[in-house]
Design goal:
This is HECT-type E3 ubiquitin transferase. By secondary structure, the chain is an alpha/beta fold. Helices cover about 35% and strands about 15% of the residues.
Amino acid sequence: MQVAPNGRIFFIDHNERATTWIDPRTGRPSSIPNHIAPSTTSRTDLDQLGPLPEGWEERVHTDGRIFFIDHNTRTTQWEDPRMSNPQIAGPAVPYSRDYKRKYEYLKSQLRKPNNVPNKFEIKVGRNNILEDSYRIISSVNRVDILKTKLWVEFEGEVGLDYGGLAREWFFLLSKEMFNPYYGLFEYSATDNYTLQINPCSGVCNEEHLNYFKFIGRIAGMAVYHGKLLDAFFIRPFYKMMLGKPIDLKDMESVDSEYYNSLLWIKENDPSELELTFSLDEESFGHTSQRDLKPDGANIPLTDENKDEYISLVIQWRFVSRVQDQMNAFLEGFNALIPPTLVKIFDEHELELLMCGIQHIDVKDWKQNTLYKGDYHANHIVVQWFWRVVLSFSNEMRSRLLQFVTGTSRVPMNGFKELYGSNGPQLFTIERWGTPENYPRAHTCFNRIDLPPYKSYQQLRDKLVKAIEGSQGFAGVD
């Protein structure tokens, strides 16, 4: 008589070299433990995931594992069919062979410098991470030092940096650098998520150009060390980095109202609007007139010159007002990543290189996960884990990913390209501890230690509390 990993008793017939759930003394099957009975999947869980596709049924195997029946094809499978629903699991990964080829070429050209220390130590306080990092990074005169192994330490915390703390440093620093509260960046007119350079940053911070150079260095360090920034910029930002012209179409995703106005001018005769080659520019409640070209206030807009007008408006809106800030940013960025290497990417690829994928595809995540400590893809606890992940919002999935890997971003080609401290390292779930323990993370190895919980709800509660209370390391990272 033995006990299976799920807690159910089974019996070994050494004569036949076979195992069975049937008790030879009574002829009856052993009972299924309460924690894996069908009732453990709560109605809340089902509501969060939505109904199964038409013709599908969920059942519990005699060993407690959940499986699914497709009555349309008369087949069974372990994987929840809702994993294939992009509305639940997230969009598919936009795999790009061309991008991968470019990325591999970039990495091959970013050679490690000679005659520098083995590592660059960064000791910062969590509550002062922006100023501490600015002081440390800006004081470096020889930029090659920033290309050495990063060794990050948070003041007052125990934790050895095998790569996880460095990723967390980039993640937390991104939150501060790009926070509109500091006046260096602002949200675009379309949403409160994509960022653009604040043209009035000099009013908010007299040292703003030094900060933009610092931010450029951080962005360059992230690309060099294969890390991601926790921010997304408007498309014209990436085009400016590449030195590419910005056109009317680029404005649509940034300021749709302004775009529609310019589009109307382009498609109609604007003479009756009585506009000139000047604009009203507002700054902190004060409005001033800005000429788009010399003596622009006295040049009327006509059907003949409207294309020039549109071009000058776009140049003013995206380029001329923030040119000094972008120049400072590029001075810092290009010191680590030469312009010739940056320009092999287009603006879409550059966004993915710097910031990764915004949405998380759970199916891709699951397909690129390793299991240890007698866990496997069909283990009941693992099934519960993925069901919890499916029930999470994209934001909560990002927080789980950040808890385990140190970053909330997914590399361009998906989870198969996750990196750990020693190179490529898939997301890993390992059995550890007892049901009383909370899950713990090893960010340098992209591994979560998941105790063998007794129910779906217990796993969900413990995991959520671990994620929400994860800031700071105690022991291994």
